[in-house]
Write a structure and sequence with these properties.
heterodimer; A: mainly beta; 22-stranded antiparallel beta barrel; five-stranded mixed beta sheet; 19 helices; 58 strands; 12% helix; elongated; disordered N terminus; B: mainly alpha; two-stranded antiparallel sheet; 12 strands; globular
Chain lengths: 1143, 607
């Protein structure tokens, strides 16, 4: 019992240290009293009989002893605790005492005679008081017990349970249980950092169980900031945190949960391919058109890749914060320009019994939507139509062939193949399991997690190979976090993260397998012909001669099954850090060090065999209606043995960081903190390809922070990063990135008190700062010239065999190249209403300058074609708003609801990009438009007839113009006098491919044992061109999408506003170049996720779904996949069943 | 562990980290990388640099990506997806020039100036070689400018290495065509002074000589005197009178200057003299004994004029080996994955070749012009009358239905080619590899090439300029100058005699002779068309003569969808669209991106 007691003290001491000293209002009490104060917290709970102590015999003797000493002695002998206030004890007179084997009471009486002080024994503590002080007497008190649990129904230890309006406080134990003395009319306040405070009326109940609901807006909450933590109330930067639980969705990538849940994050998922289905994401959109745009991701203090982030199980994450403005990111200097994501993994706790959690999920996934193709007969009719329409006398598909196909006479003589259905399954199955253990003691604690994840693909299995082609991604992820408290001031920890990823798939990349479908006609050949060959590999693949793939046409099925790939990736991240408090030097000072190593490696093997295609050389119809046919092989025979190619690559990062921190509160009002940090990083490729890539990438820097807050009302902060990068010439390597910020918490002002019930929080923030980006243009050492000494050459000689080569410049020297710098301004507001609504609004602007770009304005006659000339001259302005709102309501009796919504708007604008002056063709200029706003021709309608074409300016876009072709608007006739439509008539159109608006909203309900939640998420202000699906082609037989056939222009019924223009056998740029004709609004709203759960004790069973519904004006395929022809690996709709258990 | 020890440890790390990171931490690039200093570090590097100056020469036998060979109306290929096929269709514009040499030629020019400016520092390189290298660079500067002029007319003259930091306001503008000519002539003359007259060794073949410089100069002056640039062409030329810089400077002279022809004639004569002095002669009496075919010695001479790599006729050749998919692949009778059988001469070019008497088919009284599309028995089977009684150049260079193609096919050294649908060379179930016209090219195809697998196994340097061109340049200049028709005919006759047909006077005597300028003009032009069939001249010649409108007519050929001879021998218009926008298409469009970057650069009219 006593041991446990001691432990509690230590435990609370820890809390007390890590939080601000001042917030408990204990600044004037010395260490021992503080301990006692904490002891008081547990009095109610422990309920120790004082009488037992009172029986102990006490002996004290001495003359003019200090009161403190005498009391210490009594304390030692009685086993009781002692509580006094320093200023009181100073008033005590020297004590002369001589008692032997007396009771506690007698001893104390003797001690306090003739003193201005008195004492009481409250529970098991001797409390020293001034004589005048009135000690509150308890009356009609009784005991209440109960249990406090968290959302996941797990016991919550350390919750403070306080009788409202009194100092009477208890705390829950390791099992979440508490015990407290109350009076009848009392109310109990349950509070815990990061959770919403719960108020319960006692009403004579003897047992009150409470479920605590997390609260992002809590004043006590601590948020992770750059290189540290800060109390949320004192934060002045734009930082958003999200509970890891919210990142748990039924896909195997955390990043797929970002969209709509993190205000300020723009995220879209472009592919559903297992292992490559993470979202692309940006913090506050994009501010540069050439440098890196991805945020810096810090996992336990170390920069990692988005792939590393994706493979984290939500269970492993302790906290997840995104830093958006300069205050939050300047400290990262050259790396913080695009925002920072900080993820920390869980640590162990001092627990009686380790806490074990298990999650098992099984899901089925299927494409959200796939492009539809025409039937075989329709294909042939269209093909004939285009060829004959050209004036040729040839008839590619005879009427016999068309009718035979229509009548399904024979699957080989008259093939009619829906390649998509033939090659792919409607659904795939996936499994996930996570086991984690959290526990420890007071010296050492630990967190262990193991996650297994298996995703499979949509490729059908065929009995043509002994190997499987279907995609299978198995991921094993391990986390091991260990903390050791070497002394009360010294702590070391080791965090290990290991990921293994085992991929199997077709020899060709999966997206290519889907893409091939576009290039196969449905009627030219079947997948394969029946074969009676003994060996499985002697497959008679269908084919057609005359093409350009081994003298035939591509058979997508053969391409898919010709081989398979294995790929094994391992990632190990080890982080060791140590923390030493330097209180012996001065209070509040500490020293930290961190070293980490990350290694990623990848080994791949592609095994691929040749295949032989066959076509029917002649056939006869048998009397019974079956067909007999002969096959002939196309092209040269290919080797059917698997050939292999191997690849290895990888990288490693060594990181080192050390820092000195200082935290102190003066006079309860002035809270000061400081941080100075040095770091260095070295990144190397394990398999470099040349000299430049073999050189390590290095960075080093010093960062610092100073914060000041007055009475939690006035807040100020200064941050800086001073960073060096090897990427620049000497003298240009170091950059200084400062930021300043201020905040004002109006709701903590006295004059605000009357409003406190309605507006419980009102805080305004503003920040300004600079951030940098040294990852410019992807390449390295761009200040150096790049010279290929044998870049171009010539051959001479009668036998044409004397070859010599000379230099080619691919880049000129420019020693001025340096950082890209972003100047960021942020103004934000945090509002809490009625303790139910939390609103965070941030408005920002960033002026990114010095954007590194390849000079585009150098004309070709300079002779520098192929030589890149770089400069830091681009400018972009990015501005927007991000907003998050949540609303919580507790209906009582276990009914609870939360509503959350986020809105992110980020619009950038090109200010300077070294484009040509465009004084004439202003329409071509990208300046003033968002980055990536495409150029396209402005389509009017389709040409009606030859007269229409003649009367219209000449369209020099490509191809011979005929009726039914797209008619474009002449834009520049007034400036160049040319009656020609060419690419100077293009205009900027549409929105960028990366959406400017991302939003999400959704409620979650808790109805006793049931819970239900969903998220609606959408994007807006985004568009794309559709292309790459135009039928036929000169040497290909591209398939036809159904909408092309249905909505096309025809000579018989010419509709100048048809959705698809004149069909053409050849590629016809006039009709296929980017234009408003092919521009599509890519906005969508999705029922992104929904979940229904049932909880019994500490087990929860749930059904969840992902990408359940899509609402969009674009119907051909899932608009989130982007433009093109929709034939990538389709995005997946997932239905999931899961089980969570806690022990 | 005592916490103080840990402090020591951590502080130690801190100090270690910082000191390690002082200055050198970020110095990761070793000095030993290729830099500008290495460009001329020794004579070997200088030689490499000199070779790199040649790299911008467009390959004259580039079929799919070249602008010379498959772009006119000579050959119709079914390779409609290839860049060259966009030209007959008129599908080239400032937006999409399809094939543009603007950037690559100026890049070559820059490389040459870097050579001239830099070579002197090469340690160990003798002065004589330095001078020669610089002369080669000068020659190439002149040649590259001349190619730009061929494409774009008046161009920007580049006189040194351009400074990339030049403000846009100072960007140079186009010079007038005549200024460009003067610049090219002077730099070629300057180069010629320091170049050897002939390659000093066999390995040098392909590098510049003074004879080549003179030949290029002759070609430049021929173009300069031609109607397109010399006030000719009536209305059409006035179109170019309006090609002016923004300051009003006229770039192409609208007035005819007869003396330009004199200058061209003189240059051609000088080049001929220099060439002949150095042993360059027309290829006659072939000594290529490895092949006995073609059996007819004249045809053999014609077929081997330059596929015999030891030919003495070539003044300058491209010595870059032939790529896989070039003339020989495209022309050889179809072999799956080895020969495309798709270089199909159009009826228009077929009809250009003379009769066996050396006269145009519509002028030869002994030739039944009216019944030329009828059929009769040929030596290897029935064929169209048009294909019979033609001059040796036709037989040497063009294969028709039921004619012999001298090429190794299995054990045989020649094969009778057939082009009806489902014939080996006809339309089959192949998207592209067939003759679109019922004819197949033989020029440039080595009779000993074996096309069993993909790849070229008979190589020869491909002529950029051969002597016959200088002869015809000279004749044309004299005729246009109107001074010395006799000499002009002498030089045409040299070409005709080698081709096995009667002299001009002998042939024309039967139809009233050839004495006036107009007749002689048409004779020299047709001679040139025939002699340089499929050598990349016609696309440019018709332009400089300002008679390129026929490029817009649909090509004709046999009915290749015909299965029987009766169906096959029908003159049929091919489906392939064609367009020639007159007069805009006389010059190539400057890429629009260049116009955008340099706003004082004017575009050619009509683009």
């Amino acid at each position: 019992m006593l041991w446990a007691f001691e432990y509690k003290l230590t435990k609370c001491m820890k809390n007390y240290d890590s939080n601000s000293y001042d917030n408990y209002g204990l600044g004037h009490i010395k260490l021992i009293p503080a301990k006692l104060m904490l002891v008081l917290f547990f009095l109610g709970f422990l309920n120790i009989n004082v009488n037992a102590f009172a029986q102990k015999k006490i002996t004290v003797a001495g003359k003019n002893l200090p009161m403190e000493k005498v009391l210490e002695s009594i304390k030692e002998q009685s086993g009781l605790y002692l509580f006094f206030i320093q200023k009181d004890i100073k008033k005590a007179q020297p004590v002369t005492i001589n008692v032997k084997n007396v009771t506690l009471d007698e001893a104390l009486k003797a001690c306090f005679s003739n003193q201005p002080l008195t004492y009481i024994i409250e529970e098991n503590t001797i409390v020293v008081k001034e004589k005048s002080a009135v000690v509150k007497k308890k009356s009609a008190s009784f005991k209440i017990t109960g249990m406090v649990k968290d959302e996941a129904n797990l016991p919550l230890p350390g919750v403070s349970v306080r009788v409202k309006g009194t100092p009477n406080v208890a705390s829950t134990d390791k099992k979440g249980k508490y015990l407290i003395n109350v009076e009848l009319g009392d109310s109990l306040l349950y509070s815990y950092i990061g959770y919403k405070t719960v108020l319960k009326e006692v009403k004579g109940l003897e047992n009150i169980d409470v479920v605590m609901i997390p609260d992002d807006g809590s004043l006590e909450e601590v948020a992770v900031v750059g290189f540290g933590k800060q109390k949320k109330i004192s934060i002045v930067g734009a930082i958003q945190s999200i509970k890891p639980e919210e990142l748990r969705i039924p896909t195997s990538n955390i990043s797929n949960a970002f969209a709509g849940k993190l205000a300020g994050v723009i995220a879209v998922q472009r592919s559903g391919q297992p292992g490559a289905d993470g979202s692309t994401f940006f913090i506050r959109g994009i501010s540069t058109f050439n440098g890196a745009t991805n945020p810096l991701i810090i996992l336990d203090g170390v920069a990692v890749s988005s792939a590393d982030l994706n493979s984290l199980a939500p269970e492993v994450i302790e906290s997840f914060s995104i830093l958006k403005d300069a205050t939050a990111t300047a400290i990262y200097g050259s790396r913080g320009a695009n925002g920072v994501m900080i993820v920390t993994t869980k640590s162990g706790k001092d627990l009686d019994k380790p806490r074990i959690n298990v999650r098992i999920e099984n899901s089925v996934s299927m494409p959200t939507s796939v492009p539809k193709f025409v039937s075989g007969t329709e294909y042939m009719e269209l093909f004939n139509e285009t060829v004959i329409g050209r004036g040729s006398t040839e008839i590619p598909y005879t009427q016999d062939k068309i009718e035979g196909t229509r009548a399904n006479l024979d699957p080989y003589v008259y093939p009619n193949v829906n390649w998509y259905d033939a090659m792919f399954k409607p659904a795939a199955y996936n499994q996930t399991a996570n086991l984690n253990v959290l526990g420890g003691g007071k010296k050492v604690d630990y967190f262990l997690s193991a996650t297994f994840n298996h995703n499979s693909g949509l490729i059908k299995e065929f009995d043509v190979n002994t190997f499987s082609n279907n995609i299978s991604v198995k991921r094993y992820s391990f986390q091991n976090n260990l903390n050791a408290n070497l002394s009360k001031d010294t702590k070391v920890s080791l965090k290990l993260n290991t990921q293994l990823r085992d991929y199997r798939g077709p020899a060709k990349d999966a997206a290519g397998v889907f893409g091939d479908i576009m290039n196969a006609s449905p009627v030219d050949f079947p997948l394969m012909f029946p074969s009676d060959a003994k060996e499985r590999r002697d497959v008679l693949f269908g084919g057609r001669g005359g093409g350009n793939v081994n003298a035939g046409y591509l058979n997508p099925f053969a391409e898919m099954v010709r081989g398979y790939t294995n790929n094994f990736q391992t990632t190990v991240i080890a982080t060791f850090d140590a923390e030493q408090k330097l209180n012996f030097l001065t209070e509040g000072l500490s020293l930290k060090g961190l070293a980490s190593f990350k290694n990623w490696s990848n080994t791949g093997t592609v095994r691929s065999a040749g295949y032989n295609n066959y076509e029917i050389s002649n056939y006869v119809k048998n009397p019974d209606g079956t067909y007999k046919y002969d096959l002939s092989m196309i092209g040269t025979p290919q080797s059917l043995a698997l050939g292999t190619t191997n690849s290895t690559n990888g990288d490693r990062t060594l990181y080192f960081q050390t820092s000195i921190e200082y935290n102190k509160v003066f006079n309860q009002l002035h809270s000061v903190s400081g941080l100075i940090l040095y770091n260095q990083e070295e990144y190397s490729l394990n398999v470099p390809s040349d000299l430049i890539t073999s050189l390590p990438r290095r960075r080093q820097g010093v960062a610092g922070r100073a914060t000041y807050s007055f009475d939690n009302r006035y807040l100020a902060e200064f941050n800086f990063g001073y960073n060096g990068s090897e990427n620049f010439a000497k003298g240009k390597r170091f950059g200084f990135f400062p930021s300043v910020a201020a905040g004002y918490v109006l709701s903590n002002e006295a004059f605000f008190k009357p409003l406190a019930e309605t507006i419980n929080l009102f805080k305004v923030r503003a920040s300004w700062g600079l951030v940098g980006n040294d990852q410019i243009g992807g390449a390295r050492f761009l200040y150096l010239s790049e010279l290929n000494l044998a870049g171009q050459g010539y051959t001479t000689g009668l036998d044409m065999n004397y070859s010599k080569s000379g230099p080619t410049f691919t880049r000129f020297t420019n020693n001025d190249i340096s950082w890209e710098v972003g100047e960021k301004i942020n103004v934000g507001m945090d509002i809490g209403l009625m303790n139910k609504v939390n609103l965070v609004v941030d408005v920002y602007r960033e002026n990114r300058s010095g954007i590194f770009l390849e000079r585009a304005g150098i004309p070709g006659f300079f002779g520098t074609d192929g030589t890149r000339v770089y400069s830091n001259i681009g400018k972009v302005r990015n501005q927007g708003v991000d907003l998050s709102l949540d609303y919580n309501h507790d209906f009582g009796n276990g009914y609870f609801m939360t509503l959350k919504g986020t809105f992110t708007y980020a619009r950038n604008k090109v200010i300077d990009n070294d484009e040509p002056p465009f004084t004439k063709y202003k329409n071509l200029s990208a300046i003033g438009y968002p980055i990536g706003t495409p150029l396209g021709y402005l389509a009017d309608r389709l040409f009606i007839d030859d007269a229409d074409i003649k009367a219209h300016p000449l369209q020099q876009i490509g191809g011979v113009i005929m009726p039914g072709d797209i008619k474009y608007v002449e834009i520049t006739n007034s400036v160049d006098g040319l009656n020609i439509i060419n690419n100077s008539d293009m205009v900027r159109m549409g929105h960028p491919g990366i959406p400017e608006i991302v939003y999400g909203f959704g409620p979650s309900f808790k109805l006793k044992k049931f819970d239900f939640s969903f998220l609606l998420q959408g994007v807006a202000n985004t568009s794309f061109f559709i292309n790459g699906f135009h039928p036929f082609g000169p040497r290909t037989q591209r398939n036809v999408l159904q909408f092309v056939a249905d909505e096309r222009w025809t000579a018989d019924a010419p509709n100048p506003f048809a959705t698809y223009p004149r069909l053409s056998k050849l590629d016809h740029p006039n009709n296929t170049e980017n234009s408003s004709y092919w521009l599509r609004d890519a906005s969508f709203l999705k029922l992104r996720s929904a979940e229904l759960g049932f909880t019994h004790k500490s087990t929860r069973l749930y059904l969840s779904g992902y990408n359940l519904l899509t609402f969009s004006r674009f119907k051909l395929w899932d608009p989130e996949q982007g433009g093109g022809n929709g034939l990538g690996y389709p995005n997946q709709r997932i239905f999931n069943i899961g089980l969570q258990m806690g022990f | 562990m005592k916490f103080r020890n840990i402090i020591v440890l951590v502080t130690g790390c801190l100090i270690l980290g910082t000191s390690n990171g002082c200055q050198k931490y970020l110095d990761v690039v070793p000095d030993e990388r290729p830099t500008e200093k290495d460009m001329f570090r020794d004579p070997l590097a200088a030689e490499g640099f000199m070779y790199s100056c040649y790299a911008a020469i467009p390959g004259p036998r580039n079929t799919s990506g070249g602008i010379d060979l498959l772009t006119s109306d000579e050959i119709v290929t079914p390779f409609e997806h290839e860049p060259a096929s966009q030209f007959p269709r008129g599908n080239y514009s400032a937006t999409s020039p399809v094939i543009s040499y603007w950037n690559s030629l100026y890049k070559g020019i820059r490389q040459c100036y870097l050579m001239i400016n830099g070579v002197d520092v090469t340690p160990g390189l003798d002065d004589e070689t330095k001078t020669r290298y610089k002369a080669e660079a000068k020659f190439l500067i002149g040649y590259y400018h001349s190619l730009l002029m061929k494409l774009y007319g008046p161009i920007i003259i580049q006189r040194d290495v351009a400074d990339v930091n030049m403000p846009a306001a100072q960007f140079p503008v186009r010079s007038s065509y005549d200024e460009c000519v003067d610049f090219v002539v002077s730099i070629l003359d300057e180069a010629g002074n320091d170049l050897p007259a002939a390659p000093l060794s066999n390995t040098e073949l392909g590098r510049a000589t003074s004879v080549i410089a003179k030949a290029v100069k002759a070609r430049v002056l021929l173009f300069a005197a031609s109607p397109l640039y010399n006030g000719g062409g009536g209305l059409k030329a006035s179109f170019y009178n309006n090609l002016k810089n923004l300051d009003g400077k006229q770039l192409i002279s609208g007035t005819f200057d007869k003396e330009k022809w004199k200058r061209a004639a003189d240059a051609a004569k000088a080049a001929i003299d220099a060439a002949e002095l150095n042993g360059i002669v027309l290829y006659k009496n072939s000594t290529y004994t490895a092949s006995t075919l073609p059996a007819d010695p004249i045809e053999k001479d014609l077929r081997f004029t330059f596929v015999d790599k030891n030919t003495n006729e070539t003044i300058w050749a491209s010595t870059i080996p032939e790529g896989t998919y070039s003339i020989q692949y495209l022309s050889g009778p179809f072999v799956s994955n080895a020969a495309g059988g798709a270089a199909a001469p159009s009826l228009a070019i077929v009809e250009q070749f003379y009769t066996v008497n050396g006269l145009p088919i519509d002028k030869d009284p002994s030739y039944n012009y009216a019944n030329r599309y009828g059929t009769s028995a040929g030596p290897n089977g029935v064929t169209m009358n048009l294909n019979l009684n033609r001059e040796p150049r036709f037989n040497a260079w063009i294969a028709y239905h039921n004619s012999k193609y001298e090429i190794i096919r299995g054990a045989t050294k020649e094969t009778v080619v057939k082009f009806r649908k489902n014939d080996p060379n006809g339309v089959q179930n192949r998207s592209t590899d067939f003759s679109t016209t019922g004819y197949l090219n033989k020029k440039g195809v080595h009779p000993l090439i074996t096309q069993t697998t993909l790849g070229v196994n008979q190589h020869y340097p491909f002529p950029i300029i051969r002597l016959a061109e200088l002869y015809l340049d000279y004749a044309e200049s004299l005729i246009e100058y109107g001074s010395d028709f006799t000499t002009a005919k002498t030089y045409i006759d040299k070409v005709r005699t080698r081709a096995g047909i009667p002299t001009v006077d002998a042939a024309w005597a039967t139809i009233g002779g050839a004495a006036d300028q107009a007749t002689l003009r048409s004779i020299v032009r047709q001679e040139r068309t025939i002699e340089f069939y499929f050598e990349g001249r016609r696309f440019w010649d018709l332009r400089r003569w300002m008679v390129a409108e026929p490029f817009g007519l649909k090509a004709k050929g046999m009915n290749v969808q015909g299965i029987t001879d009766q169906d096959f021998f029908k003159v049929t218009e091919l489906v392939y669209p064609r367009a020639f926008r007159s007069p805009a298409n006389y010059l190539m469009p400057i890429p629009q991106s260049e116009i955008n970057k340099n706003e004082s650069l004017v575009q050619n009219p009509g683009y």
